[in-house]
Amino acid sequence: MRYYIPALIVLIIISNIKLYSQCACCSAAFSGSALAAGTSNVGVLKEGSIRAINVYRFLYGNNFYRGIESLDNLYGESLNIHFLGTNIGYGLTKDITIDFELGSFPAKNLDYGYTNDKISGLGVASLIGKWNFFNDRNTKQEATLGIGYRQPITENLILSGTSGIIAQLFYFLNIHEDVNLILFIRGEKSLENSNDYSQGDNVVSSIFASTLLADKLAGILELRYDYLSKAKDNTSDLINTGRGTFYLVPQLNYAFDGFSLSTFFELPIHRNYNGVQLGERFGSGIALIFMI
User: Fold this and answer.
1) Domain spans of the chain, in order of start
2) Torsions phi, psi for 55 (to 5 deg)
3) What is the pLDDT of residues 149-172, one digit of tens each?
4) Tens digit of pLDDT for each residue in 212-271?
5) Which CATH class is domain 4-291?
6) What's the CA gap between 254 and 212, in Å, rounded?
7) pLDDT 10s digits, 71-121
C-alpha cells in the first residue's frame, strides 16, 4: 500500500468539516464530507472493501475580524470548539464508492464577550456517492466526481446549520516516485429551512503536495481556500456572515498494519470577513484510519 494515501484522506476530511455554522457574529465553512482512497485507486475504494475514519479536531480563536483587519480583544471574546467525526466508506464497485459521515461536538464554546454559547451534541450527517471516471495507469493520474446530500441532525443552527447538496471533484497526479500533486474542489449549495433561513453556500479548493519522508511516514502540505457566502434570512442577506480564508495545513501520517495515524495543524494565513465576525486563530487534530 502507498503510505501517503491515508494522509490524503484525513486532510480532505478536515478541509470539509463544518465546525460552526454562521450565525450572528460567527461564521465558518467547514463542510462535512470526505473523499476515500484505496490501495491502488486514490479516488475510490476497492470493490467490497470498507474504510473507517475517526477524527478529533480542535479549533481556537480569540479575536473579532472586520474585513482583513484583526480587532483588539476588548471583551474576552473567544471560540473553543471540539469536534468528533466518523466516516465509513464502502467500495460498491471498482469505480463507485459510497461514504457515510457523522459529526458531533463534545464541546462548542462561543464567547462573544456580551454573550456566551456553551453547547454540545450531534451535528450533521452526510451521504456521498463517488465515481472514478478517469484512471490512467501509464500517466499515473486519475479523477473522481462525487455528489451527495447533507442533513442536519438537530434543529440547533449553531450545531447543525441547514441541509444542502454536495458536489466535488478530486484529481490525483503522481509526478515522480512518491511525490504527488492533488487537486480537490468541493461545493455545497445550502437549502432553506422551514424558517426561510439558509447558512450560505460554500466552496473549498485545495492543492496538496505529498511525499514519503521515511518508511511508512508520509508528509503532506495543503494550501486551501475556503469561501462562504452570506447567510440569508427571509431572502435578506445577514451582514455579519460570509468570508474567504486561505489556510496552510501541514500533516504527518504513519502507517501501521491495517491502520494509520495522522496529526495535522491548520494555520489561517489570510482572512477576509464580511462585517464583524469572531474568527479562528488555528486548528489542530488527530485521526485514525482503518481498512477492512
Assistant:
1) 4-291
2) -125, 135
3) 999 998 888 888 899 999 999 999
4) 888 888 898 999 999 999 998 887 888 888 999 999 999 998 988 878 898 999 999 999
5) mainly beta
6) 10
7) 988 788 899 999 998 989 999 999 999 999 998 999 999 888 888 888 899
Per-residue 3-state assignment (H helix, E strand, C coil) for the chain? CCCHHHHHHHHHHHCCCCCCCCECCECCCCCCCCCCCCCCCCCCCCCCCEEEEEEEEEEEECEEEEECEECCCCCCCEEEEEEEEEEEEEECCCCEEEEEEEEEEEEEEEECCCCEEEEEEEEEEEEEEEEEEEEECCCCEEEEEEEEEEEECCCCHHHHCCCEEEEEEEEEEEEECCEEEEEEEEEEEECCCCCCEECCCEEEEEEEEEEEEECCEEEEEEEEEEEECCCEECCEECCCCCEEEEEEEEEEEEECCCEEEEEEEEEEEEEEEEEEEEECCEEEEEEEEEEC
